[in-house]
């Protein structure tokens, strides 16, 4: 395991509960070509009430809903992502399935990073790391897919 994978796992956790990437997932993304674009497709199912007992490095407001916690995360994550060089292609409510097995999500976000350095800069940012605790508290479950540009 390389030093950067170890550092991210120390900052975000081991991913055993699905709240962050696990060591193999960090390794997979950090081994990508440094100059290729990275697109992440995020699916979020929010809790009715935020659960800050699992959040790393942050306290939440008593009585905060999952949506409140997610909004606190977004207030920091969106501008931090843009400063790092990334941008959102889409953020919105899940509208249902058109094809495939039924799934139930609340929010979908598609983020694009021009290169690996931009993604690493986001996850290494101290403010983002702290705000990630709101994401953990907000989400009952989440799924993030990596999209590759087709040649």
Task: Please characterize this protein's 3D structure.
The protein is of the alpha+beta class. The protein has one domain (about 35-145): 2-Layer Sandwich (Alpha-Beta Plaits). Helices cover about 40% and strands about 20% of the residues. It has a four-stranded antiparallel sheet. Helix 1 (about 5-10) packs across helix 2, helix 3 (about 65-85) packs across helix 4 (about 115-125) and helix 3 (about 65-85) packs antiparallel against helix 5 (about 125-140). The radius of gyration is 15 Å and the shape is globular.
Question: What is this structure, in a nutshell?
Answer:
With 151 residues, this protein is α+β, with helices and mostly antiparallel strands. It has a single domain, classed as Alpha-Beta Plaits. Helices cover 39% and strands 21% of the residues.
């Amino acid at each position: 395991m390389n030093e950067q994978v170890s550092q991210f796992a120390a900052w975000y956790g081991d991913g055993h509960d699905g709240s962050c990437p696990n060591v193999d997932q960090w390794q997979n993304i950090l081994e990508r070509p440094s100059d290729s674009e990275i697109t992440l497709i995020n699916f979020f199912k929010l809790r009715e009430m935020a659960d800050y007992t699992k959040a790393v490095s942050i306290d939440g407001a008593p009585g905060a809903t999952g949506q409140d916690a997610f909004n606190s995360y977004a207030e920091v994550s969106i501008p931090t992502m843009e400063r790092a060089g990334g941008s959102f292609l889409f953020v919105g409510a899940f509208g249902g399935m058109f094809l495939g097995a039924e799934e139930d999500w609340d929010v979908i976000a598609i983020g694009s990073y021009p290169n690996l350095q931009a993604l690493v800069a986001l996850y290494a940012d101290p403010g983002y790391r702290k705000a990630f605790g709101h994401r953990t508290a907000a989400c009952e479950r989440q799924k993030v897919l990596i999209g590759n540009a087709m040649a």
